[in-house]
Amino acid sequence: MKINLDTVKLPKKISPCPILECVVEFRFESPFPPDAIFGIMYNEFKGDYPNLQELPILQLPEVVRRQDAALRYKPYYKLSSADKKFLFQVGGRVFSLINLSPYDGWTSFFAKLKNMIERVKKISIIDKYTRVGIRYINGFDFNILEKVNLSISLSKDHLTGLDSTIRMTVPSGEFISTLQVINDAEVKNAEKTVKGSIIDIDTHIDNPKEDIIKIVEQGHLEEKKLFFTLLKEEFVKKELNPEY
After folding, report:
1. DSSP, res 10
2. What is the pLDDT of residues 131-182, one digit of tens each?
3. pLDDT value, residue 201
4. C-alpha R_g of the chain
5. Contact 164, 145 (CB under 8 A)
6. Sign of torsion over alpha carbons 21, 22, 27, 31
7. Is there a contact between 65 and 59 (Cβ–Cβ < 8 Å)?
8. What are the contacts of 79-84 at 24+ separation with CB within 8 A?
9. Cα separation of 34 and 44, whole Å?
């Protein structure tokens, strides 16, 4: 069944902002060996992301990392900006940019993404992109199932009060979104961790044929439409202070 995501009104901003993390990931094919990719990327972006950390996957032998399909698109290194708000992750066939909370807003984040895509193009390490994904992880310090247009029922009883995880795949245009709603998650709220809910949406496209910058922009729009279609209109209006 196709879900119509084009009828919802999209705010430019909501407050309080629930975004814990935004990840835009690029998978690709390259003529360079996987272990050479990081050196080239690091040389280009070390000024922007000076703090370097090796990730645990590097403890595995190179032959395992190359042959195991589950590891092929895992990052090897994590670099962070001086203010620790942005992470740049690089693997043998993947790179991603992450905006941690507090979220900068799409306009600012998208400008960083465009700059990154253009610089990657200039260093000529990519033959083609095989997947582009835009993922938003949103946290709430209450049971979100009471505020969404989604419910679990057994017979005639709605089970919004139970600890649960809902996962589904939602097509939208050329994109596919993996939606997860978890109402028994630990959510960092200010300086403490509380029991709450997560809405996790990963919107992606395989083997994109259009300009990558346009793909990222469209993928963000599809993710945003799904998020606000999911939320009850009254909840957005009364509790999230939308600005249009």
Report:
1. P
2. 999 999 999 999 998 899 987 666 555 666 667 788 999 998 899 999 999 9
3. 98
4. 19
5. yes
6. negative
7. no
8. 79/42, 79/45, 79/46, 79/49, 79/50, 79/51, 79/52, 79/53, 80/49, 80/51, 80/53, 81/48, 81/49, 81/50, 81/51, 82/50, 82/51, 84/51
9. 16
Q: What is the pLDDT of residues 174-213, one digit of tens each?
A: 999 999 999 888 877 556 677 889 999 999 999 999 899 9
**180/199 Cα distance (integer angstroms):** 6
The answer to whether 65 touches 54, Cβ cutoff 8 Å, is no
Full-model pTM: 0.92
Q: Hey, is 89 helix, strand or coil? A: strand
pLDDT of amino acid 140: 93
Distances (CA, A) of 189 to 22, 39, 162, 164, 196: 17, 37, 22, 21, 10
DSSP state of 123: T
Virtual torsion, Cα 209, 105, 236, 216, nearest 10 deg: 0
d(C-alpha 169, C-alpha 202), whole Å? 10
Tell me the three-class secondary structure of 161-219, residue by residue.
Answer: CCCCEEEEEEEECCEEEEEEEEEEEEEEECCEEEEEEEEEEEEEEECCCCCHHHHHHHH
Q: What tens digit of pLDDT does each residue of 70-113 get?
A: 888 999 999 999 999 999 999 999 999 999 999 999 999 999 99
